[in-house]
Amino acid sequence: MNIYLRFTISISVLVLLAFFGCKNSNNKLSKKLSSEEFSSYESTGSKLATSTQKVLASNLVVAIEENGVSEAIEFCNIQAIPLTDSMSVELEAHIKRVTDQPRNPNNLANESEMEYIQSAKTTLQNGQDVTPSVRQTNGTVTGYYPIITNQLCMQCHGNEGSQINDETLTKIKELYPNDKATGYEVGQLRGIWVVEMKKDSLQ
After folding, report:
1. Nearest to 147 by CA among 115, 114, 192
2. Whole-model pTM?
3. In the list 106, 135, 175, 196, which could disulfide-bond 94, CB 3.0-4.6 Å?
Protein backbone atom coordinates (compact mmCIF):
# COMPACT_ATOMS: atom_id res chain seq x y z
CA MET A 1 0.00 0.00 0.00
CA ASN A 2 1.59 3.30 -1.05
CA ILE A 3 1.84 6.35 1.17
CA TYR A 4 -0.80 8.30 -0.77
CA LEU A 5 -3.39 5.51 -0.39
CA ARG A 6 -2.71 5.13 3.31
CA PHE A 7 -3.06 8.88 3.80
CA THR A 8 -6.38 8.89 1.95
CA ILE A 9 -7.76 6.04 4.06
CA SER A 10 -6.65 7.74 7.27
CA ILE A 11 -8.38 10.97 6.32
CA SER A 12 -11.57 9.09 5.43
CA VAL A 13 -11.59 7.32 8.80
CA LEU A 14 -11.12 10.62 10.66
CA VAL A 15 -13.95 12.24 8.70
CA LEU A 16 -16.29 9.34 9.50
CA LEU A 17 -15.39 9.42 13.19
CA ALA A 18 -15.99 13.16 13.34
CA PHE A 19 -19.32 12.79 11.54
CA PHE A 20 -20.65 10.10 13.83
CA GLY A 21 -19.27 11.87 16.90
CA CYS A 22 -21.14 15.06 16.04
CA LYS A 23 -24.27 13.10 15.19
CA ASN A 24 -24.24 11.35 18.55
CA SER A 25 -23.60 14.64 20.34
CA ASN A 26 -26.50 16.33 18.59
CA ASN A 27 -28.79 13.40 19.37
CA LYS A 28 -27.88 13.72 23.02
CA LEU A 29 -28.64 17.45 23.05
CA SER A 30 -31.91 17.09 21.19
CA LYS A 31 -33.23 14.24 23.31
CA LYS A 32 -36.67 15.23 24.53
CA LEU A 33 -37.28 15.68 28.22
CA SER A 34 -39.76 13.47 29.98
CA SER A 35 -42.82 15.01 31.64
CA GLU A 36 -41.15 14.44 35.03
CA GLU A 37 -38.02 16.28 33.87
CA PHE A 38 -40.09 19.18 32.54
CA SER A 39 -41.85 19.41 35.89
CA SER A 40 -38.55 19.36 37.78
CA TYR A 41 -37.03 22.10 35.61
CA GLU A 42 -40.20 24.16 35.97
CA SER A 43 -39.94 23.91 39.75
CA THR A 44 -36.23 24.73 39.77
CA GLY A 45 -36.72 27.74 37.49
CA SER A 46 -39.58 28.96 39.65
CA LYS A 47 -37.38 28.90 42.74
CA LEU A 48 -34.67 30.86 40.93
CA ALA A 49 -37.13 33.45 39.61
CA THR A 50 -38.76 33.83 43.03
CA SER A 51 -35.40 34.29 44.75
CA THR A 52 -34.43 37.01 42.27
CA GLN A 53 -37.84 38.69 42.57
CA LYS A 54 -37.51 38.81 46.37
CA VAL A 55 -34.09 40.49 46.16
CA LEU A 56 -35.34 43.15 43.74
CA ALA A 57 -38.58 43.72 45.66
CA SER A 58 -36.88 44.09 49.04
CA ASN A 59 -34.37 46.58 47.64
CA LEU A 60 -37.16 48.51 45.91
CA VAL A 61 -39.26 48.72 49.09
CA VAL A 62 -36.26 50.07 51.01
CA ALA A 63 -35.65 52.67 48.29
CA ILE A 64 -39.30 53.78 48.43
CA GLU A 65 -39.34 53.98 52.23
CA GLU A 66 -36.10 55.95 52.38
CA ASN A 67 -36.45 58.29 49.40
CA GLY A 68 -39.98 58.06 48.02
CA VAL A 69 -41.39 56.59 44.82
CA SER A 70 -39.78 59.07 42.42
CA GLU A 71 -36.29 58.26 43.72
CA ALA A 72 -37.08 54.55 43.58
CA ILE A 73 -37.44 55.03 39.80
CA GLU A 74 -33.79 56.06 39.73
CA PHE A 75 -32.90 52.97 41.79
CA CYS A 76 -34.53 50.77 39.15
CA ASN A 77 -32.75 52.68 36.40
CA ILE A 78 -29.34 52.05 37.91
CA GLN A 79 -29.64 48.86 39.93
CA ALA A 80 -32.34 46.54 38.55
CA ILE A 81 -30.36 44.91 35.73
CA PRO A 82 -27.06 44.68 37.70
CA LEU A 83 -28.92 43.08 40.62
CA THR A 84 -30.55 40.58 38.29
CA ASP A 85 -27.17 39.80 36.70
CA SER A 86 -25.59 39.26 40.11
CA MET A 87 -28.37 36.84 41.03
CA SER A 88 -27.73 34.98 37.78
CA VAL A 89 -24.12 34.47 38.86
CA GLU A 90 -25.07 33.49 42.41
CA LEU A 91 -27.76 31.04 41.31
CA GLU A 92 -25.76 29.70 38.34
CA ALA A 93 -28.45 30.36 35.75
CA HIS A 94 -29.16 33.08 33.20
CA ILE A 95 -32.04 35.14 34.62
CA LYS A 96 -33.70 38.21 33.12
CA ARG A 97 -36.98 40.14 33.07
CA VAL A 98 -38.62 40.95 29.75
CA THR A 99 -41.87 42.53 28.60
CA ASP A 100 -43.78 43.67 25.55
CA GLN A 101 -44.14 47.16 27.08
CA PRO A 102 -40.65 48.04 28.30
CA ARG A 103 -39.57 50.96 30.41
CA ASN A 104 -35.94 50.13 29.78
CA PRO A 105 -35.56 49.10 26.10
CA ASN A 106 -33.06 46.44 27.20
CA ASN A 107 -36.01 44.55 28.70
CA LEU A 108 -37.88 44.14 25.42
CA ALA A 109 -38.94 40.51 24.85
CA ASN A 110 -37.67 38.58 21.86
CA GLU A 111 -39.90 36.66 19.46
CA SER A 112 -40.31 33.46 21.48
CA GLU A 113 -40.75 35.37 24.74
CA MET A 114 -43.32 37.62 23.08
CA GLU A 115 -45.25 34.54 21.97
CA TYR A 116 -45.58 33.39 25.57
CA ILE A 117 -46.51 36.89 26.76
CA GLN A 118 -49.33 37.23 24.24
CA SER A 119 -50.62 33.77 25.12
CA ALA A 120 -50.50 34.59 28.84
CA LYS A 121 -52.41 37.84 28.31
CA THR A 122 -55.13 36.00 26.44
CA THR A 123 -55.34 33.46 29.25
CA LEU A 124 -55.78 36.24 31.83
CA GLN A 125 -58.41 37.99 29.71
CA ASN A 126 -60.36 34.73 29.68
CA GLY A 127 -60.36 34.70 33.47
CA GLN A 128 -57.89 31.85 33.81
CA ASP A 129 -54.65 31.58 35.76
CA VAL A 130 -51.38 31.88 33.87
CA THR A 131 -49.00 28.96 34.29
CA PRO A 132 -45.24 28.84 33.61
CA SER A 133 -43.87 27.37 30.41
CA VAL A 134 -40.69 25.32 29.99
CA ARG A 135 -38.98 24.98 26.63
CA GLN A 136 -36.00 22.90 25.61
CA THR A 137 -33.24 24.00 23.26
CA ASN A 138 -29.88 22.42 22.54
CA GLY A 139 -28.07 22.10 25.85
CA THR A 140 -30.42 24.34 27.82
CA VAL A 141 -33.91 24.41 29.32
CA THR A 142 -35.66 27.79 29.52
CA GLY A 143 -38.53 28.59 31.85
CA TYR A 144 -40.99 31.48 31.43
CA TYR A 145 -42.64 32.74 34.64
CA PRO A 146 -45.36 35.43 34.66
CA ILE A 147 -45.04 38.70 36.57
CA ILE A 148 -48.49 39.90 37.63
CA THR A 149 -49.08 43.48 38.77
CA ASN A 150 -50.15 44.26 42.33
CA GLN A 151 -51.14 47.50 44.08
CA LEU A 152 -47.53 48.51 44.75
CA CYS A 153 -46.82 48.41 41.00
CA MET A 154 -49.48 51.04 40.33
CA GLN A 155 -47.32 53.80 41.81
CA CYS A 156 -44.97 53.48 38.83
CA HIS A 157 -46.94 51.50 36.25
CA GLY A 158 -50.56 52.57 36.77
CA ASN A 159 -52.49 55.43 35.19
CA GLU A 160 -50.80 58.78 34.68
CA GLY A 161 -52.37 61.59 36.68
CA SER A 162 -54.30 59.36 39.06
CA GLN A 163 -52.13 56.49 40.31
CA ILE A 164 -48.74 57.91 39.29
CA ASN A 165 -48.08 61.27 40.95
CA ASP A 166 -46.57 64.20 39.05
CA GLU A 167 -43.14 63.96 40.67
CA THR A 168 -42.82 60.28 39.82
CA LEU A 169 -44.09 60.83 36.28
CA THR A 170 -41.55 63.61 35.73
CA LYS A 171 -38.75 61.29 36.87
CA ILE A 172 -39.98 58.50 34.58
CA LYS A 173 -40.01 60.79 31.56
CA GLU A 174 -36.57 62.13 32.47
CA LEU A 175 -34.94 58.70 32.78
CA TYR A 176 -37.05 56.83 30.22
CA PRO A 177 -38.14 59.17 27.39
CA ASN A 178 -39.50 56.20 25.40
CA ASP A 179 -41.32 54.62 28.34
CA LYS A 180 -44.16 52.23 27.45
CA ALA A 181 -44.77 50.80 30.92
CA THR A 182 -47.74 52.77 32.26
CA GLY A 183 -51.50 52.23 32.06
CA TYR A 184 -51.56 48.89 33.85
CA GLU A 185 -54.21 47.68 36.25
CA VAL A 186 -53.84 45.30 39.19
CA GLY A 187 -53.82 41.67 38.09
CA GLN A 188 -52.39 42.22 34.61
CA LEU A 189 -49.27 40.70 33.08
CA ARG A 190 -46.41 43.17 33.48
CA GLY A 191 -43.82 40.85 31.95
CA ILE A 192 -42.08 37.56 32.60
CA TRP A 193 -39.03 36.13 34.25
CA VAL A 194 -36.91 34.13 31.83
CA VAL A 195 -34.71 31.52 33.49
CA GLU A 196 -32.25 29.67 31.28
CA MET A 197 -30.85 26.56 32.95
CA LYS A 198 -28.19 24.17 31.78
CA LYS A 199 -29.41 20.64 31.30
CA ASP A 200 -28.69 18.41 34.29
CA SER A 201 -28.85 21.45 36.63
CA LEU A 202 -31.84 20.16 38.60
CA GLN A 203 -31.76 21.04 42.30
Report:
1. 192
2. 0.78
3. 196
